[in-house]
């Protein structure tokens, strides 16, 4: 596929040549800077100054001025020219003789060496030793050899001589490697080591041998079949061959293009993909040369310049043709064409983005995504081509000049809904990938707005995650999209995430009332959970009634869970206020009071009394209802009993009065127990309820954590009730009385038991009790004895340690000094540490630490002891 890489511009036409002779023909050319040298068939060298000018139409044209000429006084054509600007010299090959001329006046250098029998020569552009005052050339001679010369201002010095099997026709040198063509074979020779590498043969009758240097240790050679073969110094090829036309005359390399001249055309191939990019008609071409970036082509009478089209224009032309890969490949090598690095980076990024939009338009989404990422696309450029996705509040302005010619997705897809959906899914994928990365800087709002709209339409399950994060979308711009797709719950969450709790709660209220529909809305429980956690009591009071009317058990969780949440401590609702508020909702107020009493362990009397009264009212209501199930009533009474038994903060007398009227005997027993009126409580359990197990359990529960004497008295009260001589039915209590005596958990004073037991009871009936009582008494005696002996032993040990501490005496005299301050002891008291250090009491701040040595004394070592015997022995 073609691309215009060069323009052919006239440089010097025949009318400008010096010779009037019709046979004057151009045989070779050379350019160095602005200096253009022409070799002719009649042994002339003509010097021109040539400059590029830009015309009013913006096109480049060349202006030349003739500087002079030199006739070499020979009859053969000038075969080859090569300028050496560092030396101000020009090498000329004519009649197989290589000579030096001055670059400017074309005068021969008389002191310069002349080399005879030369077939051709070339310049080493990559010598081993670089010297600014000399150049290195390779010369092929008729005597079947190659010679390396060092050229200076005034002479050419032979460095190396390399023999060959035949006369070298042409060659090219790079470093120490010479690529040369003998009459039938190409070779690569290392002139330092003498190593020879065969390349491939050719037929000189059909192939004109041409060698061009490409890069370091790499050459391009003309080959059979009109091929251009690449060859490295090792003899291998790293690139596929080029396909040329027949009758090749000359080949040059100007990165990244190889230009080939035949008698009709100049063809341009890229070494990036080995494809022909341009073909320029040029009749009668004789010579093609590249001179430090300038390219000239000559026929026998005229010289033209090939002006490179700026690489940016070439790339844009490729992009217009949608040849993305070629454009990118060309862009990647643009730095080698002399473009400034910073300019190149900006240009390359823009090219990547243009290429990305081309791939995008072709639905090559993977390639487009890679190019957008590497080109650092401002994602708003892509969002903007999706109708209505770019936030209306965005200040984004599209890139100028534009990166693409896409009007919008609808136009691109020609209204095909399936293709539009595919493009939207790609945008979702791309936005998700870059979300939260450095690629979103400055576009957070636009990205989130686009995602909300896209999710509302295509991925509703992803909306909660986006909204729950730090969503920076334009809420007002998203509302129509969310409402259009019935995403009312997500809209409420969006309002919530932006702090508009009232709007969010209003939407959820409508959803619960079924004024709106949204399958994703979880229901009342979600709204309750939301009100539980927002730090806004005003919203709680505003919407709590609605939720309590819908479901008291769920609604009351607002207040229960808020009081349990540390996050709501700054906005905590007063419990008194909540209780008053919930008084209209009987189920809710009970649950809230249970939370305060049982979970929060509140000891406020009114809460306990209120809950007890509500439990009692529930029991009364169920008792009056003739349709009440027994299980339901038993459960209500069980809750009341649990409250009465476990709490100690309610008004007992108030509850007792009510339960007595209703003859709720178990509850009465519990209340009497709370009043420490255990005889009444046990009397009810025994005589009213005849529940002997409950009576025993009552004693066990109420004796828990009490002292032994209290436990004995409590169990004695129950036994006395069983064995009351005034009770006409006392015989029926014999069995429970015996069971009580034999209960291992019961404690009794055996003497008092024996005093109340009827005389007619047999020893056998009491044997188990008596045996157990004797064992318990014996065990208590023995344990007491052991404790007394242990205490006595500990006392003796302490006395022994005290005696040991007092056994060592010390003598205090007037010449004794305080170890801390060095003053005499003037008071009757002083301090002595276990290590013998004595100080004033005021100089000893810590009795465990010696103030002189800093030694720490433990309790087992003893502590500093004060003494009061001044001038006497202290014991």
Textual characterization of the structure:
The protein is of the alpha+beta class. Among the domains are: 6-309, 7 Propeller (Methylamine Dehydrogenase, Chain H), CATH 2.130.10.10; 808-874, no CATH class. 39% of the residues lie in helices and 21% in strands. The chain has a 4-stranded antiparallel β-sheet, with no helix packed on it. A 4-stranded antiparallel β-sheet has the order 2-3-4-5, with no helix packed on it. It has a 4-stranded antiparallel β-sheet with strand order 9-10-11-12, with no helix packed on it.
Amount of beta strand: 15-25%
Tell me roughly what share of residues is in helical segments.
25-40%
Instruction: Note the total helix count.
Output: 28
CATH class assignment of the domain at 6-309: Mainly Beta
The end-to-end span amounts to 119 Å
Mean pLDDT: 87
CATH topology of the domain at 6-309: Methylamine Dehydrogenase, Chain H
Widest β-sheet, arrangement of strands: 1-27-26-25
Cα-atom radius of gyration: 56 Å
Can you tell me the CATH superfamily of the domain at 6-309? YVTN repeat-like/Quinoprotein amine dehydrogenase
Tell me the structural class. alpha+beta
The biggest sheet, with number of strands, parallel, antiparallel or mixed sense and barrel status, is: 4 strands, antiparallel
The residue ranges in which pLDDT falls below 50 over 5 or more consecutive positions are 868-875
């Amino acid at each position: 596929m073609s691309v215009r890489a060069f323009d052919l511009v006239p440089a010097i036409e025949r009318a400008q040549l010096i010779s009037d002779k019709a046979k004057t023909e151009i045989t070779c050319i050379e350019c160095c800077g602005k200096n253009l040298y022409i070799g002719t068939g009649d042994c002339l060298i003509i010097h021109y100054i040539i400059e590029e000018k830009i015309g009013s139409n913006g096109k480049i044209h060349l202006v030349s001025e003739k500087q002079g000429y030199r006739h070499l006084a020979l009859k053969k054509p000038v075969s080859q020219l090569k300028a050496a600007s560092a030396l101000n010299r020009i090498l000329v090959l004519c009649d197989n003789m290589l000579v030096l001329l001055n670059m400017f006046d074309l005068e021969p250098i008389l002191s310069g060496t002349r080399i005879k029998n030369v077939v051709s020569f070339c310049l080493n552009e990559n010598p081993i030793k670089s010297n600014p005052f000399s150049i290195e050339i390779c010369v092929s001679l008729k005597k079947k050899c190659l010679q390396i010369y060092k050229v200076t201002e005034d002479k050419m010095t032979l460095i190396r001589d390399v023999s060959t099997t035949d006369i070298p026709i042409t060659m090219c040198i790079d470093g120490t490697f010479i690529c040369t063509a003998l009459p039938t074979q190409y070779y690569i020779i290392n002139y330092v080591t003498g190593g020879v590498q065969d390349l491939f043969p050719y037929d000189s009758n059909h192939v004109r041998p041409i060698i061009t240097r490409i890069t370091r240790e790499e050459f391009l050679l003309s080959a059979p079949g009109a091929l251009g073969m690449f060859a490295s110094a090792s003899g291998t090829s790293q690139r596929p061959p080029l396909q040329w036309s027949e009758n090749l005359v000359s080949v040059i390399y100007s990165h990244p293009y190889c230009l080939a001249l035949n008698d009709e055309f100049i063809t341009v191939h890229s070494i990036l993909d080995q494809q022909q990019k341009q073909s320029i008609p040029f009749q009668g071409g004789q010579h093609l040369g590249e001179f430090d970036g300038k390219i000239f082509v000559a026929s026998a009478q005229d010289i033209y310049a090939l002006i490179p089209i700026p690489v940016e224009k070439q790339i844009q032309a490729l992009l217009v043709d949608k040849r993305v890969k070629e454009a990118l490949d060309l862009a990647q090598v643009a730095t080698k064409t002399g473009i400034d690095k910073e300019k190149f980076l900006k240009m390359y990024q823009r090219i990547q983005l243009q290429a990305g939009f081309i791939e995008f338009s072709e639905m090559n989404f993977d390639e487009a995504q890679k190019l957008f990422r590497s080109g650092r696309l401002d994602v708003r450029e892509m969002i903007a081509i999706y109708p209505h996705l770019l936030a209306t509040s965005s200040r984004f302005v599209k890139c100028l000049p534009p990166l693409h010619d896409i009007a919008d997705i609808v136009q691109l897809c020609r209204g095909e809904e399936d293709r539009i959906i595919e493009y939207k899914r790609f945008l979702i994928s791309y936005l998700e990938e870059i979300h939260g990365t450095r690629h979103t800087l400055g576009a957070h709002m636009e990205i989130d707005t686009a995602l909300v709209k896209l999710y509302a339409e295509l991925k509703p399950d992803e909306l909660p995650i986006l909204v729950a994060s730090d969503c920076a979308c334009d809420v007002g711009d998203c509302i129509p999209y969310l409402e259009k797709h019935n995403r009312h719950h997500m809209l409420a969450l969006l309002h919530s995430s932006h702090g508009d709790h009232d709007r969010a709660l209003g939407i959820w209220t409508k959803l619960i009332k079924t004024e709106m529909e949204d399958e994703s809305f979880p229901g009342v429980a979600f709204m309750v959970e939301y009100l539980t956690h927002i730090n806004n009591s005003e919203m709680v009071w505003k919407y709590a009634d609605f939720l309590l009317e819908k479901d008291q058990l769920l609604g009351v969780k607002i207040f229960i869970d808020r009081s349990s949440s540390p996050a709501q401590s700054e906005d905590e609702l007063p419990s008194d206020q909540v209780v008053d508020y919930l008084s209209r909702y009987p189920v809710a107020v009970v649950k809230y009071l249970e939370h305060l009493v049982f979970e929060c362990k509140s000891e406020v009397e009114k809460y306990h009394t209120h809950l007890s009264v509500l439990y009692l009212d529930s029991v009364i209501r169920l008792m009056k209802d003739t349709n009440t199930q027994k299980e339901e009533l038993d459960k209500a009474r069980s809750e009341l009993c649990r409250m009465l038994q476990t709490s100690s903060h309610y008004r007992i007398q108030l509850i007792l009065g009510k339960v007595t009227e209703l003859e709720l005997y178990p509850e009465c027993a519990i209340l009497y127990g709370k009043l420490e009126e255990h005889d009444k409580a046990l009397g009810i359990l025994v005589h009213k309820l005849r529940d002997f197990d409950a009576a025993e359990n009552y004693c066990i529960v109420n004796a828990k954590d009490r002292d032994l004497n209290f436990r004995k008295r409590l169990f004695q009260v129950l036994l006395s009730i069983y064995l009351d001589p005034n009770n006409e039915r006392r015989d029926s209590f014999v069995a429970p009385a015996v069971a009580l005596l034999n209960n291992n958990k019961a404690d009794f004073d055996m003497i008092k038991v024996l005093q109340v037991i009827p005389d007619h009871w047999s020893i056998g009936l009491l044997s188990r009790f008596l045996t157990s009582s004797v064992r318990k008494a014996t065990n208590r005696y023995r344990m007491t004895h052991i404790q007394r002996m242990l205490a006595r032993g500990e006392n003796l040990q302490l006395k022994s340690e005290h005696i040991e501490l007092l056994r060592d005496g010390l003598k205090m005299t007037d010449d004794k000094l305080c170890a801390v301050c060095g003053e005499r002891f003037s008071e009757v008291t002083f301090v002595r540490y276990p290590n013998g250090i004595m100080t004033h009491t005021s100089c000893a701040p810590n009795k465990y630490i010696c103030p002189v040595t800093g030694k720490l004394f433990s309790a087992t070592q003893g502590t500093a002891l004060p003494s009061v015997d001044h001038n006497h022995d202290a014991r």
